[in-house]
Specification:
The complex is a heterodimer of chains A (255) and B (248). Chain A has nine helices and no strands. Chain A has 255 residues and is mostly helical. In chain A, α4 packs across α5. Chain A is elongated. With 248 residues, chain B is α/β, with parallel strands linked by helices. Helices cover 38% and strands 24% of the residues of chain B. Chain B has nine helices and ten strands. In chain B, the strands form two sheets. In chain B, strands 6-7-8-3-9-10 form a six-stranded mixed β-sheet, with helices on both faces. Chain B has a four-stranded antiparallel β-sheet with strand order 2-1-4-5, with helices on one face. The relative contact order of chain B is 0.17. The chains are: A mainly alpha (255), B alpha/beta (248). At the A-B interface, α6 and α7 of A face α2, β6, α3, α4 and α5 of B.
Chain lengths: 255, 248
């Protein structure tokens, strides 16, 4: 008989509590890794998505030189293929491919680094589509006004279109973060000790997987619920800024 | 006129998906001239205006602006657009900027002005359109007429040689048309070269040096407001003016 099995209560909630309290540090570590994956994936995914979205929305102008046209089209297709691949295949499959691919190239990376890499490249594809949609939703008069003042396309994009598109995309990006909290569980397949793997380890000691993963579910729920509340607060703040007119301060410019 | 034209348009043609919209336009715009373009919708007047700064790219023909050929692929169109202010029907103020930032953005980024310098100029231009008190307001808190006046100020901040107006009052509530037209009248009085696509016949009558009637993608008739409104020669012009007057 397993020594560990003796101390654990037989009832469900007692068992769940026992697993949680016995392996509290492990759970906390798992939560830390899960949050690290979700936060890093979302932040770096967002930053990289700006590149991919910009590449994808390029339009070939009749005034462009031939090399420029080729470059633009290459960027556009590269971005499209990237987005199609990462949105069209499961992250668990991507994790397996990249983890072992890099190993075969002699790169001995830790499962955590591999996990951060995979969640980032995956999230990039999703947020790139969000940003692209956000840009498409901006009234084309904004671009025309900018061009009529003499801004080139890139400057107009950076100064006028993108800031608006990003602001409008914040709810969707926040949603991507919440999805990441849950979906990074699949990265356990390459051995990342996230909340899922931590739970598996803790529960397997007692052969009490239902109770163990019940605890995990509660923790995941706590993480996603709290995050969505925080995001809703941020959105409300941004929304409030949009509506509330600023009172004129006549003394701001001295003539 | 013996003066050199600011804008010289020759045989300008443009079609959208095979539908011809401009079918050979010849037009000279002279300094300090106010040219109003009238005509029914679909006559090509807005397309013509948008071709002047290449927001719509013409298929063929020539546009000389201050002796620069806009149709030449090597022309720096962005540099020339800085000298052509444009005012849109739907204002198109930058939604992510307040009033003064709308006005200073282009001078700071394109004319390399310092922030204080650009703000001083913006305040001056906003004062000119009667919007100085709203310099730090959000665009969303302004009425249509106020937005359009800010849009005019934004264009003026680049100190353009020509101002292009694309039906600037068509999206406004009737009671706000007046304030925008007043600003435009002042501009004209101060010697700004203006090309105005408009449905405001009284404005064209009072302010324009020349009225152009477009129909079916060509300039059918042009002349002084008196010639066009009192003694139109072409049958289409007569019909158009009759329709407009009946509406009032």
């Amino acid at each position: 008989m397993n020594l560990f099995l003796e101390g654990i209560p037989q009832n469900f909630f007692g068992g769940a509590w026992y697993i949680f309290s016995q392996y509290f540090p492990l759970f906390i570590q798992g939560v830390g890794v899960t949050l690290l994956l979700a936060v890093t994936g979302t932040i770096f995914g967002f930053l990289l998505s700006l590149i991919f979205a910009s590449l994808k929305i390029q339009t070939v102008d009749s005034r462009d030189s031939s090399p420029r046209k080729v470059l633009k089209l290459a960027g556009k297709y590269f971005s499209s293929i990237y987005i199609t691949f990462f949105r069209g295949t499961p992250m668990i499959v991507q994790a397996m491919i990249f983890y072992y691919l890099f190993y075969s190239w002699g790169i001995r990376w830790s499962p955590l680094v591999a996990g951060l890499f995979v969640v980032t490249v995956n999230t990039t594809a999703y947020i790139a589509e969000v940003i692209r949609g956000g840009i498409g939703a901006i009234d084309k008069g904004q671009m025309e006004a900018a061009r009529s003042l003499g801004f080139n396309r890139r400057k107009a994009m950076r100064l006028i279109i993108l800031p608006q598109a990003i602001k409008n995309s914040i709810p969707a990006i926040g949603n991507e973060f919440i999805v990441n909290i849950k979906d990074t569980a699949v990265l356990s397949v390459i051995g990342v000790i996230d909340l899922y793997n931590a739970t598996r380890a803790a529960s397997s000691v007692f052969y009490r997987f239902t109770e163990g993963f019940f605890v995990a579910a509660l923790i995941y729920l706590f993480l996603t619920f709290t995050s969505s509340k925080i995001l809703a607060y941020i959105e409300k703040r941004l929304e409030g800024n949009k509506i509330k007119p600023r009172t004129p301060k006549t003394n701001e410019v001295t003539l | 006129m013996s003066q050199q034209a600011v804008i010289q348009i020759r045989d300008l043609k443009k079609s959208f998906d095979g539908v011809p919209v401009l079918q050979g336009i010849h037009l000279d715009i002279f300094p300090k001239e106010v040219v109003c373009i009238i005509g029914s919708s679909g006559s090509g007047k807005t397309t013509l205006l948008r071709c002047l700064n290449l927001l719509n790219e013409p298929d063929s023909g020539s546009i000389l602006f201050e002796n620069n050929e806009l149709m030449d692929r090597n022309t720096d169109i962005d540099a020339l657009r800085m000298k052509m202010g444009m005012v849109f029907q739907s204002f198109n103020l930058f939604n992510n900027k307040n009033v003064i930032d709308n006005c200073t953005l282009a001078p700071i980024h394109l004319l390399q002005m310092s922030k204080t310098e650009a703000q001083a100029r913006a305040i001056e231009k906003l004062d000119q359109v009667g919007m100085k008190d709203f310099a730090y307001s959000k665009v969303s808190s302004l009425s249509g007429g106020q937005r359009q006046r800010v849009a005019i100020a934004r264009a003026l901040c680049m100190n353009p040689t020509v101002m292009l107006f694309d039906e600037p009052t068509s999206a406004l509530d009737p009671e706000m048309v007046g304030e925008v037209l007043t600003v435009m009248r002042d501009l004209a009085k101060n010697g700004m070269t203006m090309v105005v696509v408009t449905h405001e016949m009284s404005f064209a009558k009072d302010v324009a040096n020349r009225v152009i009637f477009m129909d079916g993608g060509v300039i059918l008739e042009q002349g002084t407001p008196n010639q066009i409104f009192k003694h139109p020669k072409e049958k289409r012009t007569q019909e158009f003016l009759k329709r407009i007057i009946e509406q009032i």
